[in-house]
Each structure stands twice: as C-alpha cells, then as structure tokens.
C-alpha cells in the first residue's frame, strides 16, 4: 500500500461542483494549491477582465492530511464532468500517492473513483490588490441571482448604484429592468457607505458566476465609481470565494 502524499475529504461535494461550474466558464485550466494549512486557487479569465480567488482552511475539511505543498493542475471542463455526476449528501475526497496523478473519490450514494492526470499549470501572476471601496453591502444571494438573470436577458451591462437607501441593479438597454435591495424588502442585510457610487459591469461575466450564489444565503458586494466590483461568498464550511470584475468604461 502506497503512502499518500496528500489526502483530504470534504463533506458536501456540491460546493466544489458550484465553484467549478463558475470556474469552467472563465478558464480552461487551473491549479489547486494544496498546503498544510488549507487549499487555495487563483484564476484569471482569458480576457483578463475577472479574477476568482478560492480559500478553504484545513478546519473546513472532514479529514485533512497534507504535510507539504502539492499543486493539482486540472482541465476545468473535464473535472466538471466528473463532479456533475455527484448528488446531494455526497462527499468528495482527493488523494495523491504519486505526483503525476490525483484520485478523486465521490462517496455517499454509490462510491466511485476517478484517476485524473496532474497537469503542469502555471498559476497566474497576480499583483497585490489593495482595493478600497465606497460601498460594502451584504445582500441576499438568490435575489442577486434572480436580478442578474432578469437583467442579462435584455441587456449586455448592469448598472450598480448605491445610496443610503440601498443597492439598485439596473439594465442599460431599451428595456428597463430595475431591482432594488433594501432593508425593508429584506434583500439587503447591511450596508456601509462612504459616499453614493455607481458603476457598470458586464452581464455575461456576472451570469457566468451565478452558480457561486448557491454557496451561501448572503453575499458581500463592494464597489466604487467605475472601479472593480468585488463579490465575496462565505461558505458555511468556513471557506470563501472572492470574485473581482473590472468595470465597463464609457
């Protein structure tokens, strides 16, 4: 029996499936950095307009045995096909006995093992981002998903506006669609506002990451006038996914 180089298991495979659903729309390949203190991933989309950053601490896993850093490079579409077979209440386990391949084990309903080749994927060079935002708000994730879906059906871009009353998402097209997130409506949990702000972002890019709204009931959005939009999804397990999207100028 070979000793594992690394091995960890996570209770709900659907979290990984939702993250991968979004990731596969942005990049063809990615690299999971598996470290003694947890798992990280950074990916920049093909057009360099958006960035996804995943962090899951070791405490979020059911079992976690990683003594040295291990990089798992994979094709996002291929891995998504594997995880697409997963169901509710199934868990996922990753194990490597050899640096060249990773065993993915999905268990719960019926157990299955997949042996996946470990690809040599260079992580993207990401400059240190120290972004300050005029707006920081916690809003309802499913409400956000609905708003983006409705607006992207009629518009290429979404205008985000914030004032002391709350956040408004609005179409920029001949057909007016406007969705308000306020404390009164229940869509807004809290908001910190340095000053009112508005900025425009691509509907397509926001549409691509809507699977991430399944990670948590609330999501945190941050933006300023014509600055990047930051969306943070805090997973129930303790991990988080941050999505950054450049504004549409003009």
From TrEMBL:
Domain of life: Archaea
Coiled coil regions, renumbered to chain: none
Gene Ontology biological process terms in this record: leading strand elongation; regulation of DNA replication
A molecular function GO annotation: DNA polymerase processivity factor activity
Proliferating cell nuclear antigen PCNA C-terminal domain boundaries: 131-247
Keywords, sorted A to Z: DNA replication, DNA-binding
Domain Proliferating cell nuclear antigen PCNA N-terminal: 16-105
InterPro entries tied to this protein: DNA_clamp_sf, Pr_cel_nuc_antig, Pr_cel_nuc_antig_C, Pr_cel_nuc_antig_CS, Pr_cel_nuc_antig_N
CDD domains for this protein: PCNA (cd00577)
Role of this protein: Sliding clamp subunit. Responsible for tethering the catalytic subunit of DNA polymerase to DNA during high-speed replication. Sliding clamp subunit that acts as a moving platform for DNA processing. Responsible for tethering the catalytic subunit of DNA polymerase and other proteins to DNA during high-speed replication.
Family: Belongs to the PCNA family.
Name recorded for this polypeptide: DNA polymerase sliding clamp
């Amino acid at each position: 029996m070979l000793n594992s180089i690394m091995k960890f298991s996570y209770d709900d495979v659907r979290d990984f499936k939702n993250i991968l659903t979004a990731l596969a729309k942005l990049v063809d390949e990615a690299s999971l950095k598996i470290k003694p203190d947890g798992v990280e991933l950074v990916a920049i989309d093909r057009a360099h307009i958006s960035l996804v950053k995943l962090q899951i601490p070791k405490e979020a896993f059911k079992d976690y045995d990683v003594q040295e850093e291990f990089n798992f490079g994979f094709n996002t579409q291929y891995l998504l096909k594997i995880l697409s077979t997963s169901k509710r209440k199934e868990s996922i386990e990753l194990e490597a006995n050899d640096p060249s391949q990773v065993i993915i084990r999905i268990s719960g309903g019926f157990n299955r093992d997949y042996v996946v080749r470990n690809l040599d994927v260079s992580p993207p060079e990401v400059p240190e981002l120290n972004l300050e935002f005029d707006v920081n708000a916690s809003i309802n994730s499913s409400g956000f998903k609905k708003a983006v879906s409705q607006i992207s059906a009629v518009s290429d871009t979404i205008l985000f506006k914030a004032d002391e009353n709350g956040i408004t998402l609005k179409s920029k097209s001949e057909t007016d669609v406007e969705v308000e997130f306020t404390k009164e409506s229940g869509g807004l949990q809290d908001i910190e506002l340095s000053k009112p702000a508005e900025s425009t972002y691509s509907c397509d890019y926001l549409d691509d990451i809507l699977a991430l709204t399944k990670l948590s009931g609330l999501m945190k959005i941050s933006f300023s006038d014509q600055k990047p939009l930051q969306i943070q999804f805090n997973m129930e397990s303790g991990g988080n996914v941050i999505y950054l999207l450049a504004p549409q100028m003009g």
